[in-house]
Amino acid sequence: MLPSTTDSVVQTARLTKVFRDFWRRPKVRAVDQLDFEVRRGEVFGLLGPNGSGKSTTIKILLGLLFPTSGSVRILGRPPRDVRVKARLGFLPEESYLYPYLNAPETLDFFGRLSGLSRHERRRRVGALIEMVGLSAARNRPLREYSKGMARRIGLAQALINDPELLLLDEPTTGLDPIGAREVKDLILELKSRGKTILLCSHLLAHAEDVCDRIGILYGGRLCVIGPVSDLLAKQQLTQITLPSLPPASFDRVRAVLDEVAEPGSVTVGHPVDRLETYFLRVIEEARQVRPETGGAGAGRFEPSLFRKLEPASPAEVIERLTQAAPEPSPAAPEPEAAPAEPAAPAPSRFLERLVMPHEPPPAKRPEAPEPVEPPAGACAPERRSVIDRLVKKPSPGPEAQKPPSQ
């Protein structure tokens, strides 16, 4: 059983998932003894190569898969609890949306599934479409969207219910650099409003920009976990950044560095800007000249759509700690059998037969005795007579019997 802590939104303890073949033999150990937690109000990055168990872990957290062993808690409850699902937002790796609906119809559909009122759906749908930069394409069916535009509307549906915990599986897949930058800005805005975000991504630069802590998986096992700044820091090097100096001042600084450092260990050069920053600067300058575009435009975060989560008061913390802990779910529960569907009501003609007066069953006819097959020799004379008639030469007629005339 997991300990109850008020700061943990996601908790796993010795989480293991083994996929088996038809004969129930272990085939793939996708997740192996996984222990980690996601704290309230942070962005946690779950990283790893293909097949390392990231998507399997996400599906277990969503209650879509049963763990083989171990324990999982989401917001202090089991993953399959309906009260937990109402507080989640999920963006899958592939956006499976109805291609014949447009953006407002798609978000309205997911808003209905989330139980939002008509007024709230109408308010949030328009603001979310503008926030993800699809105002110019809001009335086009989704089958005409590019992969990046479909990714944007998928992100909007994950935010339709203002979730407390947001699970993002490869959120920047298919997005251009502008869209990827807007997604990162949106994640930081949601974090500033107290949301908790679990992020899976192959783009390490994006995870580096937004994540507070990261965990790296390989072969289903957690290799390392910790704050990004601590994991990436090179403790054996010291970096000094100075503005451009005149040649005389630069020579004096270089002479001092050569005195205190080993020969050849000092590197002097100009800092290099990141390609993403340079690309966004060029696009922003072009947008100032020509703001209109036929594709996805610039999004704008709408703070009124998301409630700000305040930290729990001391009284609430004491109340949560004194509450009885929830019953742990079994390690590998078997899926319950679906209840049998009730039989369809009988048609009226069957009811009429049931209420008709009872008639005695018809008398049973005596069964005819089975014919006894005669012995083989009994049928021989009859068969010979039939053959004789078939091969007997026909008798001549009266004209044929008259003697020939003289």
Question: What does this protein look like?
Answer:
The protein is an alpha/beta fold and 406 residues long. It is 34% helix and 16% strand. It has helices at residues 54-61, 82-85, 103-113, 118-131, 147-158, 177-192, 204-210, 228-232, 247-260, 275-289, 314-322, 348-355, 380-391, 398-401; strands spanning 8-20, 26-39, 43-47, 69-74, 88-91, 165-169, 196-200, 213-218, 221-227. The strands form two sheets. It has a six-stranded mixed sheet, with helices on both faces. A hairpin with a 2-residue loop joins strand 8 (213-218) and strand 9 (221-227). The protein is globular and about 135 Å long.
Structural topology:
Blueprint: E1 8-20, E2 26-39, E3 43-47, H1 54-61, E4 69-74, H2 82-85, E5 88-91, H3 103-113, H4 118-131, H5 147-158, E6 165-169, H6 177-192, E7 196-200, H7 204-210, E8 213-218, E9 221-227, H8 228-232, H9 247-260, H10 275-289, H11 314-322, H12 348-355, H13 380-391, H14 398-401
Parallel strand pairs: 3-7, 3-8, 5-6, 6-7
Antiparallel strand pairs: 1-2, 1-4, 8-9
Describe the structure in brief.
Helices cover 34% and strands 16% of the residues.
Task: List low-confidence stretches.
Answer: 343-347
- Alpha plus pi helix count: 14
The strand count comes to 9
Q: Mean pLDDT, nearest integer? A: 77
Rg, Cα atoms, Å = 40 Å
Instruction: Give, in order, the helices and strands.
Output: EEEHEHEHHHEHEHEEHHHHHHH
Inertia-based shape: globular
Helix content: 25-40%
Give the biggest sheet: 6 strands, mixed
Bin the strand percentage: 15-25%
Protein structure class: alpha/beta
Strand neighbour order, sheet with most strands: 5-6-7-3-8-9
| N- and C-termini, Cα separation | 133 Å
